[in-house]
Every structure is written in C-alpha cells, then in structure tokens.
Amino acid sequence: MYDETPNSAIRILHLEDSAVDHALVQRALGRSGLDFTIDHVETLADFQRATSTTSYDAIVADYRLRGFTAIDAWESLKSHASAPPFILLSGAIGESAAVAAIKLGMSDYLQKDDLGKLTPVVLRAIELQQTRLAKDRADAELAISERRLAEFAEHLQATIEQERASIAREIHDDIGGSLAAAKLDLAWIGRHLSDPVTLGHVTAATEMLQHALGASQRIMMNLRPAILDQGLTAAVDWLANGFERRTGIRTVLRAGPPRHELPKSVQLTAYRTAQEALTNIAKHARCDLVTIDLTDSGNVLTLEISDNGQGISTSEQGKPKAYGLKGLQERAKSVGGWLDVSTRAGHGTSIILSVPLDTGASGSKENPE
Length: 369
Description:
The chain is of the alpha/beta class. The chain contains eleven helices and twelve strands.
C-alpha cells in the first residue's frame, strides 16, 4: 500500500479531528527536514476512502476521535493486502490501551507532547514494515522453491521407478529368456553325450547358467519388486531374509496383521526405505543385529529399521553428499509421510518411516464398506 520508489517523498495520512494538532504535526515533520507529503482526514468515512484510493507510506492517527477511535480505523484496514505502518499519536490514553493497540498490530505509540520524536518513529516504522514485507516475499519465494523441489523429487523418483521397471522387463525378456534357452540346449546336449570329459564341461556350463539366471532374477527383484504384489509384509520379509543370507547379520522382522489396503505408492516407498536402510547398515553400521518393525495400526503405516551398530555421527548426517537419507526423506514427503532418524554413537541407529493412511481412499480391513 505504499510507494517504494527510491528518493520519493514519504506519503503520510494523518487521521486527526483537530486542525491545530494537524498543523503541529506538519510543523514537527517539516522542522526535521523530512521530505514528505501529508493528507489530512477527520472522519472514518474519509479515512476509508483515502486508504482505498491512495497508497501511503505511513498512517499517523489520534486515538479518540468524534464518534470512533483509532481501533475502528485500524480494523477497516484489514481488507487491504498490505496495510502501511499505523502510528498512534495521542494524549494520555493509558498504558493498557496503548499496549492493546500494539498487540493488534499497530506499529508504535507516541504522545502528542513528544512531537520531536515523530520523524524518527515514522522512519523506523517504515523501515520495519519494509523489512517485514521483504521477509514475507522471501518466505513466499522459498515456499515456492521448496514446493517445486518436492515436485521435481517426486517426478525424479517416478522416472527412476519407470526406468527400473523397463530395465527389469528387458532383463526378463532378453537376458533371462536367452539364458533359459541356453540351459535347455545344454540339457539336451548332456542327454546325448557319453564322453565323461565333455559331460563334465556341460555340467559346469549348466551350473554357470543357473548362477546367471539366479543373478538376473535378483537384479530384477531389486529393480522392480514384483513381490510387492504379495503384500508389503512379504516383500520386507524377502528383503530381510536376503540381507541376512548375504551379510550374516541376524535380522528379525516383527509385523502385525495388515489392517489396511495400502496404496501402491505407499508400499513402494516403504519397500525402498527398507532396502536403502539395509544397504546403509551393511556398509556402515558394524552391527550383529537388525530389527524391523512394520505396523499399520492407528491409520498410520510405521516402518522402523534398527541396528545395534556404531551409530551415525552428527557430522556424517550433515554431510552435503549424504543423499541416501535425504532421498528417503523426500520420498516419504511424496506420499504425505515423514522420516525420522534416531542415532547415538555406539548405540545404533533407528530409521522410522511414518505415513498417515487415508482410510477413505485406501480402505480398511477393519471396517469394510
């Protein structure tokens, strides 16, 4: 509501029903050397009309006027997107009234017998207002940037999952099919050979092909967890068993009976969280026990992966390239959830994913419709 053009005169609106007091205010401002223009209104209607048609840098108002108070004038400014600083300039209105006015949002209070301070008060109020507006603009821009970043992260995750699914299909259709066909041909050759040395090579080649088939299946499962079709509990159990076999770290899964039909996006987020957490544990935790707790009670899906390892130091958590946890946090946000990390040096780490469940959309097994 006020002009921020550099080197322009400060535009002031004076709400005062005494012509003598208005003249004193003009004189006080003029003596200070302030470059200003001032409009004078006496009634609430004139005040409302002036603030609706003109942009002011500051408003100076008496407290008690004919038929209304400065509070009424202040309330009328609520319809404006950005009200200018509002300074009370009055006689002795009492400390409680002045405090109440400041709490309502007015910028400052000055007594009429202290007009020598009016110019500094006006300038300070304008500066604070400009600072506040600049902060509001910066906050709004930051919120937009954060929203765009979240949307980009969500798009990136979706693109990654699509690419993983595409690669998994290619492995299944091309590599997996070719390996299976080669295994069948070797089996046929083995049935039609009698030379023990050649049969030995065929057997070795068959074992190598079987190993390659197993590896391709594991890669496909990591890229596109088809086991999620059997439910999140089954998928996390498969992850836990595979992790225990590969690392030798005892892994315990505690999961209650599922109560809700989880959306695919939530299941995939939980699965990837468990997958990333177990990968980090294998690399860094130096533990001998991992526990996984999975529940969907209380309309919240909770997945907690804990280890009894060395923990994560504060410096490690704050590393600029600590993308693993940051990625999981962004993925949790994409489904309306959040990720908490609890850790203490020498006492292990817990990663907790929480996702509120929209039972109206996803359905509940406890209250079927």
